């Protein structure tokens, strides 16, 4: 089935300046540049151009930029791996909490600023709308705000104090630098706009799979508010989670392992995901195509064996990055079905061991047979969809807000019920209820979302990041956590491109 995201991506290829220019350059359509009116078709073209950026966070700008990997490398779940420490050295420095202004994975900066620029164009188009129904205009404007918030929230989490703009920029295409708290306020404004007034549907059908929903905006608001630790809004977020739960629009898949293969794409549990397709990306074209490189990146090198944990025979080899830390299997209880769906283990001798090898690999997005029929550049064009928001997160957000932060229960929900729902699916016949304590809720999030790029951000917002300090000589991982490392250094190349009143100020500690 042709999903919505491919349809919009195809439309976006017509009439837009390509990405990769100055990161603060906004590219309006000709009619908008002249102050002209925007028809529904023009607005949709701008919206689709913004959606297309979702396809670029594994390889674009001639860099590997998987948001999952970039997030998890700083956690205590995986190592960097690959050929050696110098293979993608900027990723090794990231994993060692030692990124510098000149050596860091800066591709995400360009990707998400391109997203901001395109989302701005979409919003500007809605403000110049003609002959568009009130309902259509409300939905399209809310989609533009959601997408802008999604792109900016990643810039905010990685860099904190960043340039921000909502209008077309005149030369020299610079914008003022906001503080992290100011960016938070902008995010909340966009997300409240997207959520309020039922502009977006709570869910969509198969023909619109991949399109933003009210539930997706609520989930993004939850991540932003909880990362900011804005207790004044916790009750709002819990009310949003309760609304999603009680809407009946989403439910947990019966089997955890069913979520990750092709048949699990846009399943009943999926609130928002990116629809990758096995075509179009190429080493020589930094901003095109629909596929993802993540499966090749994280799969063991020259694999010729079957997964020992799940018995799955469909996994194939890749480059051997992101090996799973050896202690991860022990975080799961006996009988927890999430282990086999989250971690692959291959027999010694069935793959080529690489740097920081543990014998364990990330399974959810691993390379599989027949998930890539690209006629060229196979490693860039896997079709594994990126699951961004799942209903399980809705339940565990609610459990955390009530069980850890003391928010009053709402609409019949309790922290215990929410935690039990997630554990029942994971444990099946082995299910035993455990108290909805802080320790148990934190552990359940780690088990449920392993390999989905959430662990590092959870540790930071909980104030638990000190446990990232380590000296593990066996795996060449020696690092020290300091609070300023919450943010990466702003790329020196971007600082050098600004001047005068718009001169970027480096983050503290770098």
TrEMBL record:
Signal sequence interval, chain numbering: none
KW Membrane (keyword) present: yes
Protein name per its UniProtKB record: Putative outer membrane starch-binding protein
GO CC annotation terms, alphabetical: cell outer membrane
The keyword Disulfide bond is annotated on this UniProt entry: no
Protein family membership: Belongs to the SusD family.
Main location: membrane
Record keywords, A-Z: Cell outer membrane, Membrane, Signal
